Target: Aminoacyltransferase
Amino acid sequence: MRVISPEEHRDYLATLPSASFLQTPGWAKVKSEWRSEHLAWVDGSGRPVGAALVLYRKLPKLNRYLAYLPEGPVIDWSTDRLGDWLDPLVRHLKGEGAFAVRIGPPVVTRRWSAAQIKEGIADAGVSRLGQVPPLDRSAAGARVVAQLHELGWRHQAPDSGFAAGQPQFVYQVPLVQADGVSTGSTTPATEESLLKGMNQLWRRNIKKADKAGVEVSVGTVDDLKAFHDLYVHTAERDGFTPRPLSYFEVMYDALNADEPDRLKVWLARHQGDLVASTISVRVGEHSWYSYGASSTEKRDVRGSNAVQWAMIRDALAAGATVYDLRGITETLDADDPHVGLIQFKVGTGGEAVEYAGEWDLPINRVLYRAFQMYLARR
Model:
């Protein structure tokens, strides 16, 4: 392993189909309150074969750190010798003062179809996604989980809500379609096939927004203030704590410095009124819906559906293979307030995806236990 510059890190990621935007050099600038480091695994000729953005969170009053690799590292997760990758990483981080390491393998373990989720919500005997037999179980994902257990890593299971770290369960719309079981090849989806995959309500709302004259456009950094005003309004209505405008300004500049148009701010207007606004991020073949806001007034013109459809079409045109609506909770309980979010996303006709989740490796067990207690009190 060796330390690399942000520019070397950026150039290596550009050779890959994709990587999480949380593992890009720009994300280090977004999380400026954490000490950051860019690392690479290199082969015998010094050529990078893997990379990591490490964020160091300092313990109060001590010169020791939690080393956090959100949705990373970017390595060959298909290997059956995972220790060959993780052991040198841990040795390096220990030398930097880490008392524990937290990783988030970007490896899928299970998938569920939209139809399965709808059936689960309708079934009074089902309260969690894990109670529904999955459409697909990933052998590669199971292999990663087994190896992490063997290597002494500890899975950080999310609670019934959203975990403190990155979501283990997300909702995605595949932007490719299989050519056939035997070939395993795929072709890009079409706008027609994506619309056909949505439920009737989504298709009707997209048409309703168009008929009402909702106009969706891509803004500039100057439009972040309008997005943020609507975002604060959404936070007050829905009961969550909003991030400050400065956070989004840094995020816009930092991610777009890595690659132009990596982050876009979207605005849906009706007769001049901003009715919905979102932020999307794309790294190669993976596009994410990152933040969203909507007006309480004029909800009947369906600006939220219109802006989502615009982002999906933009991702498809850019060659993305997946449109990621990010986190969902595992709940399928019809009485749980979180279930409305999954119902909105299920309408896109995509699939629920479970990742391997976040894993900790304690290096100093005493400090790690104290850190766990500190987080529990917070």
